[in-house]
Write a structure and sequence with these properties.
By secondary structure, this protein is an alpha+beta fold. It has 11 helices and 18 strands. It folds into 2 domains: 10-77 and 127-257, Maf protein (Alpha-Beta Complex); 265-278 and 287-447, Alpha-Beta Complex (Nucleoside Triphosphate Pyrophosphohydrolase). The relative contact order is 0.13. Residues 102-116 and 263-275 have low confidence and may be disordered. It comes from Bifidobacterium asteroides.
């Protein structure tokens, strides 16, 4: 009997802590990729297509449409990464500082060969799976979205006292390797208990019910006010686990293939610490991603990324001469390793990614470097054996313009820096050592066209 295990990553197109918690409790460590979909615009478009008014869309139709829109939005960004990967050219230069036999020399391999060796999403026959979800609560046929305002939340909660409403959750699961998708909507009846206005005022004052469907949560402070649930309770928390399992089976994926690899001691810090070399930790609200963590290296240092790390060194070229004139650099957050220094946007490679995919994704998330706007022309790997950092070399594509934007809290600033001014900045140590080589290589690649 063939018992070979192949882990298939799951990408969650949501930043919902409740949905992530449900997956983790079920043995799945999801990759978090929020969709940032304009929900009112999506629903208005759906109503317009069918010649109806927005109010004519019932809760089940709304959550189904929004779940698919969220999944599709993230799929588009992942497809852009794969397209940039297919367009990539150049060479990978590998340096192994811990291998004495290299004697400081670099070994060169064509990037096309290396990509095949790396694997990743572009070579996957199945997966990663991408999940979009959306939930709505209704009572007496009236849809109740997120209240946003305290007075609206209080009014709703008092109207729901002692009554029963319906919470529906839409699910859209996409296999990124094949493009196949499966959809379903789960439903559960929520029975509210008896409570007084003063208690609800105190509950609303906590802020918990303001940004959740129906103005309540089952897993938080609101759990004390819910008398019972008829149907799947996980669906009330924004993701029906039985529904997700059925959708995975519909796409031909075994549920156990989604379970995370829990026991990997060789990839964990010896002391289990989440703190970096300077003893600083990321902000508590930062989302943990598969692949996040510190590795104690044979070089005596602690490096970020259980699967290694990668980033993009993006150069802008002179319109007339084609010569590189500036590079896009990140002023690193104080809490990060060597915080306050300058380097390239990048970070830990997630499960299921190769270094090129990880670098392209991280640079988009941190600096808004869109994969469709750049041309990958080479890369450099500092290989420490159990850990490595890959610097992706790229130019802006002709006719494209990259406008950097801080999409998270990992940057103090993002700036296009003139080549002659880079060495005058307080650079990340490894980047500073490699910068003369990177500059020479970018100039050579630009001259080659």
């Amino acid at each position: 009997m063939n018992t070979e295990y192949r882990h298939i990553p799951l990408i969650l197109a949501s930043s919902s802590p409740s949905r992530r918690r449900l997956l983790v409790q079920a043995g799945i460590d999801p990759i978090i990729r929020p969709s940032k979909v304009d929900e009112p615009a999506v629903l208005a478009e759906q109503a317009g297509k069918s010649g109806r008014h927005l109010d004519d869309l019932d809760a089940c139709e709304r959550v189904g449409v929004l779940a698919e829109a969220k999944a599709s939005a993230v799929q588009a960004t992942m497809d852009a990464v794969k397209d940039a990967e297919r367009r990539s050219r150049g060479e990978l230069v590998t340096f192994r500082p811990l291998n004495q036999s290299d004697s400081g020399a670099s070994s060169r391999n064509p990037m096309s060969q290396v990509l095949g060796a790396w694997g990743g999403m572009i070579d996957a026959e199945r997966g990663p799976l991408l999940l979009g979800c959306d939930s709505l609560f209704s009572m007496d046929g009236v849809v109740m979205g997120k209240p946003h305002k305290p007075e609206r939340a209080l009014e709703r909660l008092m109207a729901m006292r002692g009554r029963t409403g319906t919470l529906v959750t839409g699910h859209c699961l996409i296999d990124l390797a094949t493009g196949h998708r499966a959809r379903a909507v789960s439903s559960a009846q929520v029975i509210f208990g008896d409570y007084d206005r003063a208690t609800m005022q105190a509950y609303v004052a906590t802020g918990e019910p303001l940004e959740v469907a129906g103005s309540f949560t089952l897993e938080g402070l609101g759990s004390a006010f819910i008398q019972g649930v008829e149907g799947d309770p996980s669906g009330v928390m924004g993701l029906s686990m039985p529904t997700l399992r059925a959708l995975a089976q519909e796409l031909g994926v075994s549920w156990s293939d989604l379970w995370a690899e829990r026991v990997m001691p060789e990839r964990q810090p010896a002391d289990g610490s989440t703190h970096g070399p300077e003893g600083l930790a990321a902000p508590a609200e930062n989302v943990h991603q598969p692949g996040d963590g510190w590795v104690d290296c044979a070089c005596g240092k602690r490096h970020w990324g259980l699967n290694g790390a990668a980033g993009v060194l993006l150069a802008r070229r002179d319109v007339r001469s084609g010569a590189p004139v500036s590079v896009l650099l990140q002023h690193r957050a104080r809490w990060s390793a060597e915080g306050g220094t300058w380097g390239v946007p990048g970070g830990a490679i997630s499960d299921g990614e190769n270094p090129l995919e990880g670098g392209l994704r991280e640079s988009y998330e941190e600096a808004n470097i869109r994969p469709e706007d750049i041309q990958v022309v080479g890369s450099y790997l500092e290989d420490h054996g159990p850990w490595g950092y890959t610097t992706i070399l790229a130019f802006e594509r002709p006719g494209h313009h990259v406008d950097p934007r801080m999409n998270d809290d990992e940057s103090i600033a993002l700036e296009w820096v003139d080549l002659d001014k880079v060495s005058g900045l307080p650079l990340l140590k490894a980047f500073g050592q490699d910068w003369p080589h990177f500059r020479q290589r970018l100039e050579t690649l630009a001259a080659e066209g």
